[in-house]
């Protein structure tokens, strides 16, 4: 089972209930995983290397409806490739979300005197499990992940692929999208949806567990803020996430 099921056409998608967000529409992390997952599949076919960064913009709420994507290759080949992907509702020409993914061919080098830090393996299964229910009371994207928390780090493991044959970046973006909501300065007062999502990776994750070590700042007098933090796997740091948030009263 995948969180998005492919339609009759390769670029058509139908979200399942596990793609839902906390209110109306789909969860940003699910959307980001769909757009990046398609790019990673194309990158694998064309040997463009692995994803080192992703920028996603959420332009408007995405409904539980038939969707289509549109990939555009900005630059291909050499060491760096740059690929865009846009998300539309079927029958609508205005995009709901945009993604840009940078891919790189690895080129190992030796630096005199430099020693890479030794990994300290972590087993998230030793930490207590954490569950969150959606305000609407139904299934949502959090139900697609196993979650555990300890020592200021929240660990997530997707139980299902975002799309069939999705790559490591799609696996990272779902957990990364929760960074701003893990360490809210105040809980239960306002919603803080993120208008974008930026992830930079230094390497691909080892295994399925993704840890988020969050950091959040709010500016209530301006109605906004930011979230972010370090991203980890069981061996150590793999990258960083950041996003802008728009503070807004809870929907009635």
Please give the structural blueprint.
Blueprint: E1 4-6, E2 12-15, H1 28-46, E3 50-58, E4 67-75, E5 80-89, E6 97-104, E7 145-150, E8 153-158, H2 168-176, H3 179-182, E9 190-191, E10 196-201, E11 210-219, E12 224-233, E13 236-246, E14 248-249
Antiparallel strand pairs: 1-2, 2-4, 3-6, 3-10, 4-5, 5-6, 7-8, 8-11, 9-14, 10-13, 11-12, 12-13
Helix pairs in contact: 1-2
Structural description of this entry:
The chain is mainly β and 252 residues long. It has three helices and 14 strands. The strands form two sheets. The chain has a twelve-stranded antiparallel beta sheet. Strands 9-14 form a two-stranded antiparallel sheet. Strand 1 (4-6) and strand 2 (12-15) form a beta hairpin. Helix 1 (28-46) packs antiparallel against helix 2. The longest helix is centred in the N-terminal third of the chain and has 19 residues, at 28-46. The chain is globular and about 60 Å long.
Give the key terms.
38% strand, 252 residues, mainly beta, 14 strands, two-stranded antiparallel ribbon, twelve-stranded antiparallel β-sheet, single chain
Helix content: 10-25%
Strand content: 35-45%
Coarse shape: globular
Strand order of the largest sheet: 1-2-4-5-6-3-10-13-12-11-8-7
Oligomer: single chain
Question: Which class best fits the helix and strand makeup?
Answer: mainly beta
Cα gyration radius (Å): 18 Å
Secondary-structure element series: EEHEEEEEEHHEEEEEE
Terminal CA distance: 33 Å
Number of strands: 14
Q: Show unreliable segments.
A: none
Number of helices: 3
Q: Tell me about the largest β-sheet.
A: 12 strands, antiparallel
Average pLDDT works out at 93
């Amino acid at each position: 089972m995948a969180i998005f099921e492919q339609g009759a056409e390769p670029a058509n998608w139908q979200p399942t209930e596990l793609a839902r967000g906390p209110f109306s529409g789909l969860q940003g992390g699910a959307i980001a995983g769909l757009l990046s997952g398609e790019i990673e599949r194309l990158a694998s076919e064309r040997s463009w290397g692995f994803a080192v960064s992703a920028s996603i913009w959420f332009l408007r709420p995405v409904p539980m409806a038939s969707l289509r994507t549109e990939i555009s290759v900005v630059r291909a080949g050499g060491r760096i490739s740059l690929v865009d992907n846009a998300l539309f509702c079927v029958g609508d020409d205005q995009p709901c979300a945009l993604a840009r993914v940078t891919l790189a061919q690895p080129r190992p080098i030796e630096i005199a005197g430099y020693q890479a830090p030794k990994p300290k393996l972590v087993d998230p299964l030793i930490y207590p499990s954490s569950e969150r229910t959606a305000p609407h009371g139904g299934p949502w994207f959090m139900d697609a992940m196993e979650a555990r928390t300890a020592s200021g780090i929240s660990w997530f493991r997707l139980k299902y692929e975002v799309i069939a044959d999705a790559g490591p970046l799609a696996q990272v973006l779902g957990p990364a999208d929760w960074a701003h909501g893990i360490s809210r300065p105040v809980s239960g007062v306002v919603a803080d949806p993120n208008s974008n999502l930026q992830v930079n990776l230094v390497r691909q994750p080892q295994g399925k567990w993704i840890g988020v070590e969050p950091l959040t700042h709010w500016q209530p007098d301006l109605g906004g803020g930011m979230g972010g933090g370090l991203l980890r796997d069981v061996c150590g740091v793999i990258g960083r996430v950041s996003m802008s948030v728009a503070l807004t009263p809870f929907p009635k």
